[in-house]
Write a structure and sequence with these properties.
This protein is mainly α. The chain is 72% helix and 1% strand. It is built from 12 helices and 2 strands.
Length: 322
């Protein structure tokens, strides 16, 4: 079977899986019920991110299970996250699964050959990325649009440095595109759920670690700079306010645009994706340069993103108070 044929068949299988999942979710009541913290107002099927997991699993099983530790990591968080979508699990259960998944990713990348003093903070950093990816999944389209930009950027990067089989990237993109057909709309048919956001977060964390160590540069993590800034600044702000950062909230910039400005979900999601695409384009232009040049080009971008985030949030505060 040719590669193109496999892609086409996978695309069709994913649509079939989507319709079957919708029917099953409707039958068993797998729905997200809005509450005072929600950015939506109608019941919506959750767990649609299972399409991304299915797409990656098709790759793994049709290619004789390459990257076994990565497969195990995604399988573990997918199962635990889907159970959490069905019935809320405790924080320790979710965090424990994520820690094991990160360790499996490190085994896949042979990172345990490095100093233990590097491994521990790297585990914390990766857990932060995965959870920020989950926290940012709060409106229609944001996880899908944003992840599409990230994976396309990695696909371009991979053409130059050949760090991984390009097919796994295409399969990931196919899963997001089909998911997007049902989610990139004013009234989404389903949400990604934890199974989607956390599984995608683990996969993207693996990819960025892979290229960072391959290129001896932290700059590939700029591919998720917008998320890291929004998530990071929000966490710091909540810590300064002595809030519990593990509890749901509506403090992210995108949430303020929804609840204060009443901006359409897909418009905000598209805006985040566009900003990240601009950042990624600059990264791809300088990634072939020296590390010093890469940092000189990207550090100002981070500062601009942080200052823009702070300014926009402050500009919304007076209206929030009303």
């Amino acid at each position: 079977m040719s590669t193109i044929t496999l892609f086409i068949i996978t695309f069709l299988i994913l649509f079939l899986c989507a319709y079957l999942y919708i029917k099953a979710a409707q039958k068993f009541g797998i729905e997200d019920v809005p509450n005072h913290r929600s950015s939506h107002s109608l019941k919506t099927i959750r767990g649609g991110g299972i399409l991304f997991v299915i797409s990656l699993f098709i790759y793994f099983f049709t290619q004789s299970l390459p990257l076994p530790y990565l497969f195990s990591a995604i399988f573990l968080v997918a199962v635990v996250s889907f159970v959490d979508d069905l019935k809320t699990l405790g924080t320790l259960s979710r965090l424990g699964a994520q820690i094991i998944a990160v360790v499996l990713v490190f085994y896949q990348l042979n990172l345990f050959e490095n100093s233990i003093f590097l491994i521990f903070p790297l585990i914390i950093f990766c857990l932060g990325i995965i959870n920020i990816y989950n926290f940012m999944d709060g409106i229609n389209g944001i996880t899908g649009f944003y992840s599409l930009v990230v994976l396309l950027s990695v696909l371009v990067l991979n053409r130059s440095f050949n760090g991984i089989d390009y097919q796994i990237l295409v399969f990931g993109i196919l899963g997001i595109v089909v998911f997007g057909f049902f989610n990139f709309r004013k009234k989404a048919i389903f949400f990604a759920g934890d199974i989607g956001s956390i599984s995608i977060g683990v996969f993207i964390t693996f990819l960025l670690l892979l290229f960072s160590f391959k290129l001896n540069s932290p700059v590939p993590f700029m591919f998720i700079a917008v998320y890291l800034v929004d998530g990071g600044v929000t966490i710091i702000s909540r810590l300064l306010k002595k809030e519990n950062i593990l509890k749901p909230h509506k403090s992210h910039l995108y949430q303020n645009f929804v609840h204060v400005k009443s901006v359409n979900h897909v418009t905000i999601a598209g805006g985040y994706a566009i900003v990240q695409a601009i950042v990624n384009s600059i990264v791809l232009l300088v990634i072939h340069k020296s590390l010093q040049t890469q940092l000189l080009a990207t550090i100002p971008l981070v500062l601009i993103l942080i200052l823009s985030h702070v300014y926009l949030n402050r500009s919304l505060k007076p209206r929030i108070a009303n």
